[in-house]
């Protein structure tokens, strides 16, 4: 059975073996766990506490900052408001989308820490693909990223057919950082053979996966893997996670990298913003 690799990221800048492991993970699985990365566990815990405080508020308070449209893509998203799989019932989760404009304790510091880590991962990607080390980072330097606080509340109503906490989907941008909390997981990823394997919470790690734009950039060399969050056996438990969606500059043209052309490019060029808007419009 295919396993999601756990990669020590502490020496990524000088260790070619780490780069090989990352390349293998991106081409074979599309997911990896990184350990020994440069974000303190205390800061991560502070953000989880902020998240819990927000989601514990009454719905009428949360709705005052409701998500309004795909152009701003920020604010509160209520339960069943989103369908990550448009063919299935609404997802049993609530979320709060944050951009660089948000000024909250710990959030600003965490957003910057995630940005720094994402740039390090993008540098590793560039080295793995034999590109200039700053190629991807330069195409992400406007910080058009989204931090997403996620809460999967206890199941209190009968499930609709095929309803789940987050429908199967691939992420839209270049890479995603996912911080899982406690032992309550539910995240599953789909292998190339179509099987689903668990991606449990592992203390001291961050889950990293490649998204659609990275797959397009690399002509399918790096895979954007479908994943979902399933209903747990104990439906009375909440699940919390934090996702950092790393997205290229809006005007970046995603065209097949020369080193990734085999016979011909598999995707036409598209701007990063155009692709994101198209995907968001189909989700809400």
From TrEMBL:
Name recorded for this polypeptide: 2OG-Fe(II) oxygenase
Signal recorded as keyword: no
UniProt family annotation: Belongs to the iron/ascorbate-dependent oxidoreductase family.
Pathway(s) of this molecule: Antibiotic biosynthesis
Key words of the record: Iron, Metal-binding, Oxidoreductase
Annotated GO MF terms: metal ion binding; oxidoreductase activity
InterPro entries given in the database record: DIOX_N, IPNS-like_FE2OG_OXY, IPNS-like_sf, Iron_ascorbate_oxido_reductase, Oxoglu/Fe-dep_dioxygenase_dom
Residue intervals of the Fe2OG dioxygenase domain: 143-248
């Amino acid at each position: 059975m295919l396993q999601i690799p756990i990669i020590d990221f502490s020496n990524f800048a000088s260790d070619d073996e780490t780069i090989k492991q990352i390349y293998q993970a991106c081409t074979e699985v599309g997911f990896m766990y990184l350990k020994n990365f440069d974000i303190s566990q205390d800061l991560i815990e502070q953000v989880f506490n902020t998240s819990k405080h927000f989601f514990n508020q009454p719905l009428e308070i949360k709705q005052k900052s409701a998500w309004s449209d795909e152009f701003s893509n920020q604010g509160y998203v209520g339960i069943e408001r989103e369908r990550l799989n448009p063919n299935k019932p609404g997802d049993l989760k609530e979320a709060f989308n944050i951009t660089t404009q948000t000024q909250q304790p710990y959030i600003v510091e965490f957003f910057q820490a995630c940005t720094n880590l994402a740039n390090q991962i993008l540098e590793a990607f560039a080295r793995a693909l034999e590109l200039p080390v700053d190629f991807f980072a330069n195409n992400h330097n406007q910080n058009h990223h989204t931090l997403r606080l996620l809460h999967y509340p206890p199941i209190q109503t009968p499930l609709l057919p095929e309803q789940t906490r987050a429908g199967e989907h691939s992420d839209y941008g270049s890479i995603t950082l996912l911080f899982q909390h406690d032992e309550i997981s539910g995240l599953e990823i789909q292998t190339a053979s179509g099987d689903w394997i668990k991606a449990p919470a592992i203390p001291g790690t961050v889950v990293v996966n490649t998204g659609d734009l990275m797959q397009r950039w690399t002509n399918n060399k790096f895979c954007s893997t479908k994943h979902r969050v399933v209903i747990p056996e104990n439906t009375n438990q909440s699940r919390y996670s934090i996702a950092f969606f790393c997205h290229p500059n809006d005007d970046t043209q995603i065209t097949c990298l020369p080193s990734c052309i085999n016979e011909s490019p598999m995707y036409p060029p598209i701007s990063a913003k155009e692709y994101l808007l198209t995907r968001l419009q189909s989700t809400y």
